[in-house]
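Entry:
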Amino acid sequence: MFLALIIFLIILIRSSRKSTKANLEEVDEALSGVSNFKIFMWLLIGSAGLYFGSEWLVEGAKQLATAVGISDYAISVTVIAIGTSVPELAASVIAALKREKAISLGNLIGSNIFNIASVLGLTAIIKPIAVNPETPEILSTNIFWMIAFAAILVPLMLIPKQFIIGRYKGMLLFGAYIVFIYLTLK
Protein backbone atom coordinates (compact mmCIF):
# COMPACT_ATOMS: atom_id res chain seq x y z
CA MET A 1 0.00 0.00 0.00
CA PHE A 2 2.74 2.42 0.96
CA LEU A 3 4.79 1.55 -2.13
CA ALA A 4 1.69 2.08 -4.30
CA LEU A 5 1.26 5.53 -2.72
CA ILE A 6 4.87 6.47 -3.49
CA ILE A 7 4.49 5.33 -7.11
CA PHE A 8 1.19 7.22 -7.38
CA LEU A 9 2.79 10.41 -6.02
CA ILE A 10 5.78 10.15 -8.37
CA ILE A 11 3.51 9.70 -11.39
CA LEU A 12 1.26 12.54 -10.23
CA ILE A 13 4.17 14.96 -9.70
CA ARG A 14 5.79 14.09 -13.04
CA SER A 15 2.57 14.52 -14.98
CA SER A 16 1.86 17.77 -13.17
CA ARG A 17 5.32 19.16 -14.00
CA LYS A 18 4.86 18.31 -17.66
CA SER A 19 1.46 19.96 -17.92
CA THR A 20 2.11 23.01 -15.76
CA LYS A 21 5.13 25.26 -15.87
CA ALA A 22 5.56 27.11 -12.60
CA ASN A 23 6.10 30.84 -12.88
CA LEU A 24 8.94 31.50 -10.47
CA GLU A 25 8.30 35.25 -10.59
CA GLU A 26 4.98 34.70 -8.82
CA VAL A 27 6.66 33.08 -5.79
CA ASP A 28 6.39 35.31 -2.74
CA GLU A 29 9.66 37.16 -2.15
CA ALA A 30 9.25 36.83 1.62
CA LEU A 31 9.57 33.06 1.30
CA SER A 32 12.94 33.27 -0.40
CA GLY A 33 14.41 35.20 2.55
CA VAL A 34 13.54 32.62 5.24
CA SER A 35 16.61 30.99 6.75
CA ASN A 36 17.07 27.24 6.87
CA PHE A 37 17.39 27.47 10.69
CA LYS A 38 13.93 29.07 10.95
CA ILE A 39 12.45 26.45 8.62
CA PHE A 40 14.05 23.68 10.69
CA MET A 41 12.75 25.17 13.96
CA TRP A 42 9.19 25.43 12.63
CA LEU A 43 9.44 21.87 11.36
CA LEU A 44 10.65 20.72 14.78
CA ILE A 45 7.89 22.62 16.61
CA GLY A 46 5.25 21.26 14.20
CA SER A 47 6.54 17.70 14.61
CA ALA A 48 6.45 17.95 18.40
CA GLY A 49 2.94 19.40 18.26
CA LEU A 50 1.80 16.61 15.97
CA TYR A 51 3.29 13.91 18.19
CA PHE A 52 1.94 15.22 21.49
CA GLY A 53 -1.41 16.20 19.93
CA SER A 54 -1.82 12.64 18.64
CA GLU A 55 -0.93 11.18 22.02
CA TRP A 56 -3.40 13.46 23.79
CA LEU A 57 -6.13 12.72 21.25
CA VAL A 58 -5.83 8.95 21.70
CA GLU A 59 -5.60 9.18 25.50
CA GLY A 60 -8.51 11.62 25.66
CA ALA A 61 -10.61 9.37 23.44
CA LYS A 62 -9.95 6.38 25.73
CA GLN A 63 -10.95 8.42 28.77
CA LEU A 64 -14.07 9.70 27.00
CA ALA A 65 -15.09 6.16 26.05
CA THR A 66 -14.66 5.03 29.65
CA ALA A 67 -16.51 8.05 31.08
CA VAL A 68 -19.46 7.76 28.68
CA GLY A 69 -19.56 3.98 28.89
CA ILE A 70 -19.21 3.15 25.22
CA SER A 71 -16.59 1.10 23.41
CA ASP A 72 -13.26 2.39 22.14
CA TYR A 73 -14.49 1.33 18.71
CA ALA A 74 -17.49 3.69 18.87
CA ILE A 75 -15.26 6.57 19.96
CA SER A 76 -12.77 5.82 17.19
CA VAL A 77 -15.34 5.96 14.37
CA THR A 78 -16.97 9.09 15.79
CA VAL A 79 -14.79 11.42 17.86
CA ILE A 80 -11.41 10.43 16.41
CA ALA A 81 -12.71 10.32 12.83
CA ILE A 82 -14.38 13.71 13.14
CA GLY A 83 -11.40 15.24 14.96
CA THR A 84 -8.91 14.15 12.34
CA SER A 85 -11.20 15.23 9.48
CA VAL A 86 -11.91 18.78 10.70
CA PRO A 87 -8.77 20.29 9.07
CA GLU A 88 -9.69 18.64 5.74
CA LEU A 89 -13.26 19.86 6.09
CA ALA A 90 -12.09 23.42 6.80
CA ALA A 91 -9.73 23.39 3.79
CA SER A 92 -12.45 22.03 1.49
CA VAL A 93 -15.07 24.53 2.69
CA ILE A 94 -12.69 27.48 2.31
CA ALA A 95 -11.68 26.28 -1.17
CA ALA A 96 -15.34 25.86 -2.15
CA LEU A 97 -16.22 29.33 -0.84
CA LYS A 98 -13.38 30.78 -2.93
CA ARG A 99 -14.78 28.86 -5.91
CA GLU A 100 -11.66 26.68 -6.09
CA LYS A 101 -13.60 23.51 -6.80
CA ALA A 102 -10.54 21.64 -8.07
CA ILE A 103 -8.74 22.21 -4.76
CA SER A 104 -11.77 21.13 -2.75
CA LEU A 105 -12.28 17.96 -4.80
CA GLY A 106 -8.55 17.25 -4.96
CA ASN A 107 -8.34 17.53 -1.17
CA LEU A 108 -11.19 15.05 -0.78
CA ILE A 109 -9.82 12.49 -3.23
CA GLY A 110 -6.19 12.97 -2.19
CA SER A 111 -7.06 12.65 1.47
CA ASN A 112 -8.84 9.35 0.92
CA ILE A 113 -6.01 7.92 -1.16
CA PHE A 114 -3.46 9.12 1.40
CA ASN A 115 -5.44 7.78 4.37
CA ILE A 116 -5.85 4.33 2.86
CA ALA A 117 -2.40 3.93 1.34
CA SER A 118 -0.21 5.87 3.75
CA VAL A 119 -1.90 5.77 7.13
CA LEU A 120 -2.96 2.14 6.84
CA GLY A 121 0.14 1.08 4.89
CA LEU A 122 2.70 2.85 7.07
CA THR A 123 0.99 1.76 10.27
CA ALA A 124 1.02 -1.87 9.09
CA ILE A 125 4.74 -1.54 8.26
CA ILE A 126 5.49 -0.33 11.79
CA LYS A 127 3.16 -2.78 13.51
CA PRO A 128 0.96 -5.36 11.79
CA ILE A 129 -2.73 -4.60 12.09
CA ALA A 130 -4.78 -7.54 13.28
CA VAL A 131 -8.52 -7.48 12.88
CA ASN A 132 -9.56 -8.34 16.39
CA PRO A 133 -12.35 -10.89 16.88
CA GLU A 134 -13.55 -8.70 19.76
CA THR A 135 -14.52 -5.98 17.28
CA PRO A 136 -16.17 -7.87 14.42
CA GLU A 137 -18.17 -4.77 13.48
CA ILE A 138 -15.14 -3.43 11.63
CA LEU A 139 -15.43 -6.04 8.91
CA SER A 140 -19.05 -7.03 9.29
CA THR A 141 -20.62 -3.56 9.02
CA ASN A 142 -18.16 -0.70 8.54
CA ILE A 143 -16.63 -2.09 5.37
CA PHE A 144 -20.11 -2.13 3.83
CA TRP A 145 -20.81 1.42 4.99
CA MET A 146 -17.51 2.57 3.47
CA ILE A 147 -18.24 0.80 0.17
CA ALA A 148 -21.80 2.16 0.15
CA PHE A 149 -20.66 5.75 0.69
CA ALA A 150 -18.08 5.41 -2.09
CA ALA A 151 -20.53 3.69 -4.45
CA ILE A 152 -23.34 6.20 -3.91
CA LEU A 153 -21.13 9.06 -5.08
CA VAL A 154 -21.19 7.84 -8.69
CA PRO A 155 -24.98 8.07 -9.18
CA LEU A 156 -25.10 11.27 -7.12
CA MET A 157 -22.59 12.86 -9.48
CA LEU A 158 -24.37 11.70 -12.64
CA ILE A 159 -28.06 12.10 -11.77
CA PRO A 160 -29.82 14.49 -12.52
CA LYS A 161 -27.11 17.11 -13.24
CA GLN A 162 -23.82 15.61 -14.29
CA PHE A 163 -20.84 16.17 -12.02
CA ILE A 164 -22.66 18.36 -9.51
CA ILE A 165 -23.17 17.50 -5.87
CA GLY A 166 -25.41 20.27 -4.57
CA ARG A 167 -27.08 21.06 -1.27
CA TYR A 168 -29.73 18.33 -1.42
CA LYS A 169 -27.24 15.63 -2.31
CA GLY A 170 -24.92 16.93 0.39
CA MET A 171 -27.73 16.79 2.93
CA LEU A 172 -28.49 13.23 1.83
CA LEU A 173 -24.85 12.21 2.37
CA PHE A 174 -24.68 14.00 5.72
CA GLY A 175 -27.98 12.40 6.78
CA ALA A 176 -26.59 8.97 5.90
CA TYR A 177 -23.55 9.77 8.05
CA ILE A 178 -25.82 10.73 10.96
CA VAL A 179 -27.61 7.35 10.56
CA PHE A 180 -24.21 5.61 10.61
CA ILE A 181 -23.23 7.47 13.81
CA TYR A 182 -26.58 6.60 15.42
CA LEU A 183 -26.22 2.91 14.58
CA THR A 184 -22.60 2.91 15.80
CA LEU A 185 -23.50 4.39 19.17
CA LYS A 186 -26.62 2.27 19.56
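The mean pLDDT is 80.
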